[in-house]
Amino acid sequence: MKCRSALILCIYVALLLLSGNIVAGNTEDKTPDYLSARWNPLHFKPAIDYALDAQCLGCHQEVLQRKPLSQSPAGIKSSESLAWYQKDETYQGEQETFHRRHMVTSTAKRLMKFKCNTCHQGHDPKDEASGTTDTTQKDLVLRKAVNPDICLMCHGKFDYKVMAGLTGDWPEVADTFNGDCVTCHKEFRTKRHKLNFLNEQEIEKAGEKDSNTCYGCHGGRAWYAIAYPYVRRPWLKRMPGALPEWAKDRPTEYTKRFTK
Amino acid sequence: MSKEIDKAKIKAAVKRRKRETYKPVVPATQLGFIHHNVDCIGCRACEIACKDKNGLAPGPRFRRVSYIEGGVYPDVYAYKVNMSCNHCAQPACLPTCPTGAIFKRASDGIVDIDSTLCIGCRRCEAACPYGAPQFDPGDNLIKKCNMCVDEIDAGRKPYCVMACMMRVLDIGPIDEISDGSFQTTAIGPGDMPVKQVKNMADPELTKPSIRFIAHSKGGVQSKQ
After folding, report:
1. In terms of Cα–Cα distance, which of B191, B193, B189 is closest to B172?
2. B137 part of contact set with chain A, CB < 8 Å
3. Which keywords accompany this UniProt record (chain B) (predicted)?
4. Which of A23, A169, B7, B97 is the most buried (most CB within 10 A)?
5. Are B182 and B192 in contact (CB under 8 A)?
6. Closest CA to B88 of B106, B110, B65
7. Domain span at residue B217?
8. Is the pLDDT of residue A23 over 50?
9. For B199, which of A97, A129, A148 is closest by C-beta distance?
10. Over 90: is that where the pLDDT of A234 sits?
């Protein structure tokens, strides 16, 4: 009899706790506030790796909604002002923010498959540096929400020095190859763009049509002074024993985060 | 000289022109910052002086002192990393700007922004590896540290440097700071300025004009 009473009591307490949690959860969901939202597990590993864009955009929707001003305070019209890289054929449409350029514009939708967590790997309200007492978050970069090494994959210099046969940057040598990247790349580094944030087939199609599209990412928007060290590929099998100095320290596989 | 218009040649020339890329400015002298990570007490007087000078509301912070604290007792450590705009030799913000609002001075390498030309697209903010360009939600514009360029032109030092009570933050020609020939209280006897500290983005990305006196637990071996 005592056992049965204890069991009933246990079940009652468990139900009470469960209902309390549900109520607390509901309350939290209905009235999210900034401070508690910062501690949402979605901002931390491992939850952030499985976060859906819809979950991120539930709070951060403004990143895809906000557009640049139609004109600057001094009267410079957005529609009439283009940067050097925006005069290329690969640039289309009106001025947009970088988030929209990577996720929702027509070119972005055609060539890319970026998700929020492709770039954003979480933060920690307690600390902005990894390896300290207050955080277990890894790869935090001071003052940044994203590790710039990810940006470097498409915004690095055109690495002509490691490409046999090229004597200068692409704009200088393009005419020698009739402006066609595929002249060499039907032989070299044929396994490419197999990353989960790129639309491989569409990129290949765009590249075949016009090499300026290739240059659009591979040098044509080089914000950084260095090139991204792309992984070594099995082309070395075609040239047994050939391992150039520049390739010695390079990995042979991309991090799983970009391939799975 | 032929008077015939060679359409193919013109077409090729137009295509070539379109492939033109941005050429970085090479200044006569490059000014840069030096910060002593260990002797900095983290009082944030530099941050406040900066906000005061630039009339910034809560939110945008041109300069930020990061507190790095860690270790396990008794082997614990604490130091500060203090950064604003690093006035990079090859700034990533500059080429992204569609209106030419960001520019680099040829005389001293200061990277400045004319916010009246800014359309608030925030590309520079994303491209900078050190979080220098700051978005002001008050007017939807990007603003950033310009090393108090008016003070520099008047022969003085920026507000952050003048506010530093420990004298651990200073500016000077970055080459002289690097080779130790620059006379400053921010570099102590035997201190060796380094380009990068732990948790900071790779300086090779943009070649930032800043050097640190790193803490023994805050150095990055390969970049020193």
Report:
1. B193
2. no
3. 4Fe-4S, Electron transport, Iron, Iron-sulfur, Metal-binding, Repeat, Transport
4. B97
5. no
6. B110
7. 24-90+145-223
8. no
9. A129
10. no
B47 Cβ neighbours under 8 A, 6+ residues apart: B61, B63, B64, B65, B160
Asked, for residue B189, whether it belongs to a domain, the answer is yes
CB contact under 8 A, B19 and A69: no
User: Using CA atoms, how far apart are residues A114 and A199, in angstroms rounded to an integer?
Assistant: 9
Q: Which of A27-36, A99-108, B210-219 has the lowest mean pLDDT?
A: A27-36
- The CATH number of whichever domain residue B202 belongs to comes to 3.30.70.20
Minimum-distance CB partner of B121 among A68, A71, A134: A68
Q: Is residue B192 part of a domain?
A: yes
What does the pLDDT look like over A177-205, one tens digit per residue? Answer: 888 898 888 888 888 999 999 999 999 99
Listed by start position, the domains of chain A span 37-69+78-146, 154-258
Asked if B19 and A81 come within 8 Å (Cβ–Cβ), the reply is no
pLDDT of residue A24: 43
Low-confidence ranges of chain B (pLDDT < 50): 223-224
First-to-last C-alpha distance (Å) of chain B: 59
Q: What is the pLDDT of residues B169-223, one digit of tens each?
A: 999 999 999 999 999 999 999 999 999 999 999 999 999 999 999 999 999 875 4
Is there a domain that residue B4 lies in?
no
| Number of domains chain B is built from | 1
CB pairs under 8 A between A and B: 158
Compare CB distances from A68 to B81, B119, B131 and report the shortest one's residue: B119
Higher pLDDT, A231 or B102: B102
Is residue B113 one of the residues assigned to a domain? no
Determine the Cα–Cα distance for residues A84 and B20; give it in Å rounded to an integer: 8
What DSSP element (H or E) covers B134? strand B134-136
Q: Report how far apart, in Å, the C-alpha atoms of B28 and of each of A35, A239, A250, B154, B209 are.
A: 47, 46, 36, 18, 14
Strands B210-213 and B31-36: parallel
